[in-house]
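Appendix C: a fully annotated inverse folding record. The material below is reproduced so that readers can follow the format used throughout the book. The structure is listed first as tokens, followed by the designed sequence.
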């Protein structure tokens, strides 16, 4: 797999910087997240025919009825995950997809554990992680509904597909004080939520309306 990590023309560093400015205009303010978005070359996570659109603030198809999320959503979810003074040390991502969100998280956390149910997508993402020398990302073929209990607990969990209800299994894999960032609901009526563990119990906060692919069961090989 041979790719140009720096990019040229519509995939150049200048184009990437323009995306960062748009994210700031849309309210992304965490400099740690913006720096991570700047470091990760989004054009290597899409098909070559779509590379010229990689730094548009839009979702793009990656095959198997899946998409690479809109950069704003990647930044927003990362920002929610990192709210507060300390970055999460261990993060679980449910839904590797193209590997773009995983790579952004790898710039923010010590260790990223990511699960994906579609094997060809996971293989492509793993190749990209090697290209980027993102050695702190571990992958697993799994539908994600059960998380990755063997590696838990996690300081934070980020889910990139929407279940109709919050999977209780994921909550049990959070460390004390941990945080879950997840879209919840059916197509056309999904909300991005943040669930935090407090001394009084689970605190649920709704952030904004979103649109994600559904969180499905089973593995596709």
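Designed amino acids, in order:
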């Amino acid at each position: 797999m041979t790719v140009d990590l720096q990019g040229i023309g519509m995939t150049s560093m200048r184009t990437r910087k323009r995306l960062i400015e748009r994210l700031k205009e849309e309210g992304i303010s965490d400099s740690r997240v913006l720096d991570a978005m700047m470091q990760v070359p989004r054009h290597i996570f899409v098909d070559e025919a779509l590379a010229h659109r990689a730094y548009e603030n839009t979702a793009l198809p990656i095959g198997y009825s899946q998409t690479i999320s809109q950069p704003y959503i990647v930044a927003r979810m990362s920002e929610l995950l990192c709210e507060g003074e300390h970055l999460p040390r261990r993060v679980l991502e449910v839904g590797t997809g193209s590997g773009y969100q995983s790579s952004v998280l790898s710039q923010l956390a010590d260790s990223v554990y990511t699960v994906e149910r579609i094997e060809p997508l996971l293989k492509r993402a793993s190749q990209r992680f090697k290209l980027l020398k993102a050695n702190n990302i571990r992958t697993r073929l799994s539908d994600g509904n059960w998380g990755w209990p063997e590696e838990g607990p996690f300081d934070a969990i980020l889910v990139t597909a929407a279940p109709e209800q919050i999977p209780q299994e994921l909550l049990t894999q959070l460390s004390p004080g941990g945080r879950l960032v997840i879209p919840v609901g059916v197509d056309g009526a999904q909300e991005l939520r943040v669930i935090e563990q407090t001394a009084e119990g689970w605190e649920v906060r709704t952030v904004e309306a979103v649109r994600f692919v559904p969180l499905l069961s089973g593995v596709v090989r």
